[in-house]
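Look over this entry.
=====
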Amino acid sequence: MDHNGVKPTGFTYRLMIRMYCALGEMNRARGVFDSMANEGFALDLTAFKMLINGYVKSKRKEETMRLAEEMLQNSKFDPLIDSPKYSKSPCEQNQQHEKGN
């Protein structure tokens, strides 16, 4: 992904993921996330957390669970250990979000 020969940085990718998640454009956010990995950038905890949070807010339970599983299988991060915000499972987060908490 480049624009006029200028390639984005990891920060730029994370910024785009955050923007698309805030807009509820989860397919685009996931596309940027995948592009980030394809371009050789490390998928860091911040990128995973932003995308998981976006899926939770969009009430996309299956995608939330798939990404959490992907995070466990393909990275050094554990969503239940690496962040206090994610001390609950993605299913519990979805249930809490649906209740408005």
